[in-house]
Write a structure and sequence with these properties.
The protein is mostly helical. The chain has helices at 3-7, 24-27, 31-34, 44-52, 78-83, 102-115, 123-148, 163-166, 173-190, 202-222, 233-248, 259-268, 306-311, 322-325, 397-411, 416-421, 423-429, 443-448, 457-470, 477-483, 585-590; strands at residues 70-73, 278-282, 302-304, 392-396, 498-499, 503-505, 515-518, 536-539, 550-552, 558-562. 48% of the residues are buried.
Length: 601
C-alpha cells in the first residue's frame, strides 16, 4: 500500500471549529477530486473560505494532564505508560505521528499555498490568508517536533507517484524548525492586526511566535543531546522577546480586573469578547451547538498535585515552610496566593453550577485536591458532559508577559523594570507582592530545576514558579518540564493532601467530619457503622490485605500517594529517551527511511 494513502491523501479538514463558520459544500470534496486551479482559489474570498477550515487546528486546553501538576489521573495516558516502560515501537500506535490528522492538515495547507498566488484581489488580503495558512503549518509541524525531534519537511502537497518525497527520511531538527520560524515570521509580517479575538490575526501569530521561540530556545539551551544546537538558543530567545514586545507595545492588551474574582473570570466567563487580556479565545454558544467539557475538571478522572499546591507563595510573597507542608486540607489555603483557591478546590466550595447546595467533599482516592479552575459556576454555563458554554482562552496576555520575562532572564538581560512590566503586573491583579531582581533562591525550586545556573538563576527559578501558578491547568506544564529538561521530576511519587494519621476528617471547613481514611475495613479505629453513616470512607487495603488505591507517604501519616506509582510500577524517566516518543513500527515499515528519535534507535 502506498504511504500516501495512509498519511497524506485525505479530504479537506472535515469540520470547522467553534471559532468560525465555513462552506460545507467544498468541505465534502478532497483537494484532488473537488478542487483544482481552474475551479477554486480564484479570489480572496476563496482563500478565506478555504482557510476557515484551518481553525480546527487551534484550540484551548483546560487541564495539565501528563504533568506533575496532576496528583493522580485514572486515564491510561501514553506518557504515564512510557514512564513505566510500557511504550515502545510495537505499542505506541499512532500517538503523535498521525495525531489529530496532522499530516492531512499539512497536505491541505500546502495544497492551498501552491495555488494561492492565482487568486485575484487585494494583495494585502491575499498575504493575510497566506500568512494564516503558514501559521497553521508551523503549528502542525512544531507539534511533531515536540514529540519526535524531527520530521520530513514538505512545502508542497505530495503527488501519488513522487516516491522520493513519499519515502524521504526526516530532515534535521534545525531545518524543520528554521522552516517553522520562517512560516511564523511571514505570518507576523503580513497578517492583518484585526479587532477580532476569535479569528487568527497578526497578534495571534505573534503570540504563537513567542510561545514556540521560547520553547525552542530553552530546549536548545538545556538539552545536552542537542548540544550542537546550543549556540543557536539565544537567537530563539531573542525572537521570543521581539514577538512578545510587539504585543506589549501595541497597547491593545492588558491584565484585566482586580482580585481573585478577576482571575477566576478569565476561565468561567460565557463571553470573553470584551476582555482585553484575550489575544485569542474559543467562543462557545449553546444556541450554535458549540459547547465544551469543562464540567469534567472537578473529580472526574484527576485531581491536582501537592507539588502544585506547594508552589503557591504565602500572601507576604515568601515560600511556604516545612510547617506549612504538614497542614491538613482545611488549613492549607490560609494566607496563600489567592490564585491557589481559584485553581484547587478549597474547603467549603459549593458546585453551584451543578445545582449543589452543600460543600463538595474531597476525593481521597484521587488525592483530595480537586481542580476548580475552568469549572463553570452557574446554571447558565454548566451543562454537564460536553454541554458547557464558558469561553476558553487560547492565547492570553499574561502568557506573553511571562514569556517576555523568562526569555530575558535566560538571555541574562532582565532588569527590575522588566519584572515590573511583566510578572509584577500579573501579581498585582491578585494583590501579591512584587518580584524583586535580587529575590533569594528558594532551595525547593533549586532542587526541582538543578540545571539552572548563571547570574540570574534566582529570578529564572521564580519566573518558573510564577508561570506554573498563573498558567496552571492551561496545558503548559508538561511542555515546560520537557523544554527545561527536568524529566526526572516525574520520578518523584505524585502526592495529594497531608493527613497526620488514619481517622476521620473535616474537608468542608464546617467542623463536622465528612471523610475518613482507614488502613482496612478490618481496622476502623473503633468507629461503628453508625458513626460513619454520613462519612465517605476510604481504605489503603482491602479485607485480605491487598492494596487499594492510596497509601500514606510515611506509613501511618503523610501525604496521600498512589499504589499505581509504587514499587514495580514506580516511574522511571530515562533521559534523553523519554523526551521523545518512538515511531510506530508500522510507520517505519511503510517508510524504511524514517529513523527512530533520539534514545529509541
Amino acid at each position: 500500500m502506498k504511504l500516501t494513502k495512509i498519511l497524506y491523501i485525505t479530504g479537506i479538514v472535515a469540520g470547522c471549529s467553534f471559532l468560525s463558520s465555513c462552506n460545507d459544500d467544498y468541505l465534502q470534496k478532497s483537494p484532488e477530486d473537488g478542487l483544482n486551479q481552474e475551479s477554486f482559489f480564484n479570489s480572496v474570498a476563496d482563500l478565506e473560505t478555504y482557510t476557515n477550515g484551518f481553525y480546527g487546528m487551534v484550540g484551548a486546553s483546560y487541564d495539565d494532564l501528563y504533568s506533575d501538576n496532576i496528583g493522580h489521573g485514572t486515564g491510561d495516558y501514553t506518557f504515564s505508560q512510557k514512564l513505566k516502560g510500557r511504550i515502545d515501537e510495537k505499542t505506541i500506535g499512532s500517538y503523535g505521528w498521525k495525531k489529530d490528522g496532522v499530516w492531512s492538515n499539512i497536505y491541505n495547507i500546502n495544497f492551498m499555498l501552491v495555488n494561492a498566488d492565482k487568486a485575484v484581489g487585494d494583495e494585502k488580503e491575499k498575504k493575510h490568508y497566506i500568512g494564516l495558512a503558514r501559521l497553521c503549518r508551523a503549528l502542525q509541524y512544531y507539534g511533531i517536533i515536540k514529540n519526535y525531534g524531527s520530521a520530513p519537511w514538505y512545502s508542497t502537497p505530495i503527488a501519488n507517484d513522487d516516491e522520493d518525497a513519499l519515502y524521504k527520511p526526516q530532515d534535521s531538527r534545525e531545518l524543520v524548525v528554521d522552516s517553522v520560524m520562517a512560516d511564523l515570521q511571514y505570518a507576523c509580517d503580513y497578517m492583518e492586526e484585526g479587532s477580532s479575538r476569535t479569528r487568527l490575526t497578526r497578534y495571534a501569530a505573534l503570540g504563537y511566535m513567542a510561545r514556540i521561540a521560547l520553547y525552542e530556545g530553552t530546549f536548545r539551551k538545556y538539552h545536552t543531546e542537542v548540544s550542537d544546537l546550543a549556540s543557536t538558543a539565544n537567537s530563539f530567545l531573542e525572537k521570543a522577546v521581539w514577538a512578545s514586545n510587539e504585543i506589549m507595545q501595541s497597547g491593545q492588551f492588558e491584565i484585566t480586573g482586580e482580585g481573585a474574582a478577576a482571575y477566576r473570570d478569565l476561565f468561567v466567563n460565557p463571553d470573553l469578547s470584551k476582555n482585553k487580556e484575550m489575544i485569542l479565545f474559543a467562543d462557545y454558544d449553546r444556541d450554535l451547538s458549540r459547547k465544551n467539557n469543562t464540567s469534567s475538571v472537578l473529580n472526574w478522572q484527576w485531581n491536582l498535585s501537592r507539588s502544585l499546591a506547594d508552589s503557591y507563595l504565602k500572601l507576604d510573597g515568601t515560600p511556604i515552610t516545612d510547617a506549612d507542608r504538614t497542614k491538613t486540607f482545611v488549613d492549607m489555603f490560609t494566607d496563600r496566593d489567592p490564585r491557589m483557591a481559584e485553581t484547587i478546590m478549597y474547603p467549603g466550595f459549593i458546585n453551584e453550577g451543578n445545582n449543589a447546595t452543600i460543600p463538595t467533599k474531597i476525593v481521597l482516592d484521587y488525592g483530595g485536591l480537586g481542580q476548580i479552575k475552568f469549572l463553570p459556576r452557574t446554571d447558565a454555563t454548566y451543562g454537564g458532559w460536553n454541554e458547557n458554554i464558558t469561553d476558553l482562552p487560547i492565547i492570553r496576555y499574561a502568557e506573553v508577559l511571562l514569556t517576555n520575562a523568562e526569555a530575558k532572564a535566560e538571555l541574562g538581560t532582565l532588569t527590575q523594570n522588566d519584572l515590573n512590566e511583566t510578572v509584577n503586573l500579573i501579581r498585582k491583579r491578585v494583590g501579591m507582592p512584587d518580584m524583586k531582581i535580587d529575590v533569594a533562591i528558594d532551595p525547593v525550586l533549586e532542587q526541582q530545576y538543578p540545571n539552572v545556573g548563571g547570574a540570574l538563576k534566582n529570578v529564572i527559578l521564580e519566573i518558573r514558579r510564577e508561570r506554573r501558578v498563573e498558567l496552571a491547568c492551561e496545558g503548559f506544564r508538561y511542555g515546560d518540564t520537557m523544554r527545561w529538561a527536568v524529566g526526572e521530576i516525574y520520578n518523584q511519587p505524585f502526592e495529594g493532601v497531608y493527613l497526620p494519621g488514619f481517622g476521620v476528617y473535616d474537608s468542608t471547613g464546617d467542623g463536622v467530619p465528612d471523610v475518613a481514611l482507614f488502613k482496612s475495613p478490618n481496622d476502623k479505629m473503633g468507629y461503628s457503622d453508625a458513626d460513619l453513616l454520613d462519612i465517605t470512607v476510604y481504605y489503603t487495603q482491602d479485607e485480605k490485605g491487598g492494596n487499594k488505591q492510596v497509601y500514606l507517604s510515611e506509613g501511618d501519616k503523610g501525604n496521600i500517594r498512589f499504589y499505581s506509582d509504587a514499587d514495580n510500577d514506580a516511574n522511571n524517566f530515562i533521559s534523553p529517551k523519554y523526551y521523545y516518543y518512538p515511531l510506530s513500527q508500522d510507520e517505519t515499515k511503510l517508510n524504511p527511511n524514517l529513523k527512530q528519535p533520539i534514545g529509541w534507535e
